[in-house]
Amino acid sequence: MSTYSVIKGTHKLTRGLCVFITRSFSSMSNRRPKVYVTRRVPPDGLEILRPHCEITQWDSEKPVPRAELIRQIAGKDALFCLLTDKIDGEVLNAAGPQLKCIGTMSVGYDHIDMTECRERNIPVGFTPDVLTNATAELTVGLLLATSRRLIEASQSVREGGWGTWDPCWMLGHGLDGSTVGVVGLGRIGMAVARRLAPFGVKRFLYSGHSPKNEANEIGAEFVDFDDLLSNSDFVLGCCALTKENQGLFDKDAFSKMKSNAIFVNTSRGGLVNQTDLYQALVNHQIAAAGLDVTSPEPLPTDSPLLTLKNCVILPHIGSATEMARGAMSALTGRNILSFLRGEEMPCRIK
Ligand code: DGY
Q1: Is 132-313 in CATH node 3.40.50.720?
Q2: Which atom of ligand 1 is nearest to the CA of 266?
Q3: Which residues form the D-isomer specific 2-hydroxyacid dehydrogenase catalytic domain (predicted)?
């Protein structure tokens, strides 16, 4: 006998009868492992876990309050979390020593204190690859919306600003013949570059820890960060956020960019010093910025960035396709279930 619980606020629904206990769970003395799920998620992952685990879920479109997370994680064997949940020593202590693994439904894991996890020998699964195409597609869309001023142009039609066809109105910057600089040519950076190549990009530059073999496919040149900034017409933030690159795009970085540069960030808001970005945009030090990620998220509606026509801001929707989010949920479920069964996680953070 086991339970499937959905908790929303004070409401608790308990249902279910399932006696399926695999031999591989024998290390848990024949009881179904308990998994805490921190949000309403696409069902794919829950369907993988439900036949084998006792699930407790914060069934809401809003993040679980921290106090509730700390209360609910106590005694659980696994945690299914999102990038909006800060998983640190306090949460891991609250969980207790039986916590065996964590699966985050994201490719980024800057919200998880990996040192604390390693110290406790808790493996963390994540969801690379399955969101690469969706995120790359959105990055291209955001780049074009920003460089060709799509939001501003559409808004001006609504506001009666479309006088007549004007040879000097709403001019933007095209990709044809341009130099694109990708900061972090990983899975997503590479997928973005592949999609941009057919637009007639003349040169691809990239920076990061080391040269990559895949770069040859698009003839991308490995350069240092400063060279990338000063030579690129488009600068794309595609690297994972770490302690070292927090605020990487700051006053100094913007001052090195070309005045026609379009800056696009679909990675993490923490890469950018937003005060410095605002100044660079107001002073036309760079032409425009497209952001799918900000710090904090959501971006407060009184953020000065929202007053700028040359700044396009989206609400972190890079991976927001039905297919990608379903696959992210499923992979998180598989990561957790595999580990609980004593198998390798399909995608474990090294
Ligand atoms: C991730 O998975 O880290 C992405 O930011 C979600 O879109």
Answers
A1: yes
A2: 5
A3: 35-347
